[in-house]
Amino acid sequence: MLLNSCCVCPQAQRLLLQDGSLAHFTVQSSSALPTITLGLPANARSELDLSPRKVGRVPMVTGGQSVYLPLGMEEQSGSLSPHLQPVLLLEPSRLVHTPMLAVPGLGTVPLQFAPQMDRLAPGGGPHKALSRTRSEPLPQSLRSLHPLLQQHHNSQLLERLKQQTHLGKSLLWEKQKQLQQLRRQTAHMETLAVPMMLGSAHRPLFRTQSSPASTSLTLPDKPLPIPAPEPHSKPRFTTGLVYDSQMLKHQCTCGDNSSHPEHAGRIQSIWSRLQERGLRGQCETIRGRKATLEELQSVHSERHVLLYGTNPLNRLKLDNRKLAGILSQRMFVMLPCGGVGVDNDTIWNESHTSTASRMAAGSVTELAFRVAKGELKNGFAVVRPPGHHADPSNPMGFCYFNSVAIAAKQLQQKLSANKILIVDWDVHHGNGTQEVFYNDPSVLYISLHRYDDGNFFPGSGGPAEVGSGAGEGFNVNVAWTGGLDPPMSDAEYIAAFRTVVMPIAQEFSPDVILVSSGFDAAEGHPAPLGGYKVTGKCFGFLTRQLMGLAGGRVIMALEGGHDLTAICDASEACVSALLGIEEPLSEEVLLQKPNANSVCSLQRVIQIHGQYWQSLKTFSSSVGLSFLGAQRRDCEETDAVNALASLSVGVLTSKSLPDEPMEHDDNSM
Fold first, then answer.
1. Quick one: which residues bind Zn(2+) (predicted)?
2. Other CB atoms closer than 10 Å to residue 447's CB: what's the count?
3. Binding residue positions for Zn(2+)
4. Which residue numbers belong to the known binding site?
5. CA quadruple 201, 202, 203, 206: dihedral positive or negative?
6. Burial class for 221, CB neighbours closer than 10 Å (0-12, 13-18, 19+)
7. What one-character-per-residue DSSP string does 296-309 give?
8. Spatial separation of the C-alpha atoms in residues 536 and 539, rounded to whole Å
9. Which residue among 93, 178, 280, 299 is buried most deeply as judged by most CB within 10 Å?
10. What's the mean per-residue pLDDT of the chain?
11. What DSSP designation does 235 have?
């Protein structure tokens, strides 16, 4: 595949394929994409934007793939740098190709250099070719790269490509038989609940402590074990937990967790903490499962599902003609760490991301079914990657498939759930969930998130976004504004639940409650990732509030949250609450009044949604009170009403008595 000379225009990218046809695509510059790591919405620039990169030799991939690689952030370039982004297009013309050379994140692809493309780089002089497997800066000397890129080695690669390209149908048939045998072995290993690693390049993360010293974790030989339920044992009617080690394999190929806030250590730390505290033993652990393609398509487009829900192994079972056209549209960026992503934040692992994302969605759905059918009391899903930013046709913000939205759709379609409440307390607005149910009156979506007048990622979720059509009024955004002066904390979230969330939820009267339980509003997260100060105990308190609705049928699914200690504390508090373990907040917290910025934000929500929810009107005057202060006021008002009622009854009773002669007077007569 050769790159057409018009590549410098970000709106008119074209690839000249080997058969002479042109493939058109667009490339967004990094500044046009929302950036969750930096807390930026779309079209926002930051001083931390990547410096311009120098474009070297553009690799020509003969197997129908194209790779554009940056040379290093320390080098500057001329006019091309803002527009020529590092982009990888996977398998645009073939589903099966001959592997020849390893490319980080994409497995193995045939690769050769096209000398005629050197003229694209300013100066036209020699440039270093990039071959990276680690995240440290490239060596400055061409001598250190010579063993990997010598001409003799490239000639050998091309010669082997020619030989293997003409092996014919027999070789392809043998490869397919091997893949089928591998699938059978994988299925057998999954039946035995023994995690199986494909290849030996990456081992799963493992931790024995839930309070890490750093985010760069060592990898042991064995993954964290998951106790498998007895084959014929009846599940206990208690809190359900779901977790699967396959979700650990979704990792950036750079191998450096410090570059990626959303990494496998998040769920591994939580799972370890629940074990350490003895909570897992009190819960019923269910087996996770992958969501089916049909389940994914209840929320996402077919194109999105095939792009991000399949991998080279399971694509063999699908329609090759349909896949060939869809896969030609895949677009990836080369991340500064050397890995591959679908945007600046969301890493892609060709072998494991689709499986992990489907496992997260399927596990949340399975847990929701068990709770809705009365097999479990409530549940907590320890899953990744998160999902609430994924809209029907786009991944973003670490998310590929919207697990909570998929679970809600399946509850509607298969269990005929009439009214579903989704509460999203991740510090980022769940733009994907909002879009899915924006005109659906049977799903009430309430989100509490940092908004800052649209200047915090993802930029959506304003209080005036109330739903449309029949769904008008069923989309409630508690959009915190005012930045971090001061940051929102327990008092503000308790006030939001008291004056907005619980009154609307009680009036809605849901059949089941799903919680997008992101913990990045917890204290411990830097300003770009949240900056708020909500404690783990507060999340437990809010959980207990929700358990008073829908017969206690509450299903919580992990979304964001990247400080490991904070998310472990919050998860422990929420699971404890689901189990009925009381951990009351201190009187000091319950006496704290919400800050002025939060009061303004809540009054704005009440003003807008008062026309849809009658229960809100009585809370407008009490938004600024503390939790205990509001309780005292309610008690005083109740006592006053009761006193007035008693007085009225007494007056009416005295007036209703007739004037009759006394009995002793009759006797005297």
1. 252, 254, 260, 337
2. 27
3. 252, 254, 260, 337
4. 252, 254, 260, 337
5. positive
6. exposed
7. HTTTS-HHHHHHHS
8. 5
9. 299
10. 76
11. P
The alpha carbon of 561 is separated from its chain's Cα centroid by a whole number of angstroms, namely 10
Pick from 240-249, 315-324, 326-335, 633-642 the range whose average pLDDT is largest: 240-249
CA-based angle 480:486:489, to the nearest 5?
Answer: 65
Q: How many CB atoms lie within 10 A of CB 42?
A: 16
Largest CA distance in the chain: 138
Is a pLDDT exceeding 70 seen at residue 557?
A: yes
C-alpha dist (Å) from residue 148 to 3, 151, 152, 266, 619 = 23, 9, 10, 36, 69
Residues 118-129, mean pLDDT to the nearest whole number: 38
574, with CB counted inside 10 A (0-12, 13-18, 19+), is buried
Q: What is the pLDDT of residue 645?
A: 73
Is the pLDDT reported for residue 612 higher than 70? yes
Q: Is 31 or 608 the better-scoring residue by pLDDT? A: 608
Give the residue among 426, 455, 446, 625 at the shortest CA–CA distance from 534: 426
Residue 419 to residue 609: CA distance in whole angstroms: 19
Token reading at 494: 């308790």
Q: Are 421 and 549 in contact (CB under 8 A)?
A: yes
**Mean pLDDT value across residues 454-478:** 98
Residues in CB range of 152: below 8 A, 6 or more apart: none
More confidently predicted of 561 and 63: 561
Calculate the alpha carbon distances from 563 to 174, 214, 522, 524, 528 in Å.
47, 10, 8, 6, 13
**68 vs 538: CA distance, rounded Å:** 47
β 87-89/65-67 pair status: antiparallel
Q: Where are the alpha helices (DSSP H) in 91-141?
A: none
Residue 299 contacts residue 402 (beta carbons within 8 Å): yes
**Reported pTM:** 0.71
Q: Are 361 and 291 in contact (CB under 8 A)?
A: yes
Q: Which secondary-structure segment (H or E) carries 157?
A: helix 151-165
Q: Does 312 sit behind a cis peptide bond, omega within 30 degrees of 0 on the bond before it?
A: no
Residues ≥6 apart with Cβ < 8 Å to 248 = 204, 205, 223, 224, 264, 267, 268, 356
- Burial 255-283, CB ≥16 within 10 A → b, else e: bbbebbbbbbbbbbbbbbbbbebebbebb
Per-residue pLDDT of 315-369, as tens digits, reads 888 877 778 888 877 888 999 999 999 999 999 999 999 999 999 999 999 999 9
Indicate the residue type of 367.
L
Per-residue confidence band for 517, with pLDDT thresholds at 50, 70 and 90: very high
- d(C-alpha 392, C-alpha 406), whole Å: 10
Residues in the chain: 669
pLDDT at 128 over 80: no
Q: Which of 92-106, 319-333, 607-621, 646-660 has the lowest mean pLDDT?
A: 92-106
User: How far, rounded to the nearest angstrom, does the alpha carbon of residue 484 sit from its chain's CA centroid?
Assistant: 24
Please state, in angstroms and rounded to a whole number, the distance separating the CA atoms of residues 236 and 244: 20
Catalytic center residues? 389
Query: What token pair was written down for 453?
Result: 């007048």
CA distance 274 to 576: 9
pLDDT of residue 140: 41
Average pLDDT (374-399) is 98
**Is 431 within 8 Å of 475 (Cβ atoms)?**
no
In degrees rounded to 5, what are phi and psi of residue 529?
-100, 5
Q: Is the dihedral of CA 379, 384, 388, 390 positive or negative?
A: negative
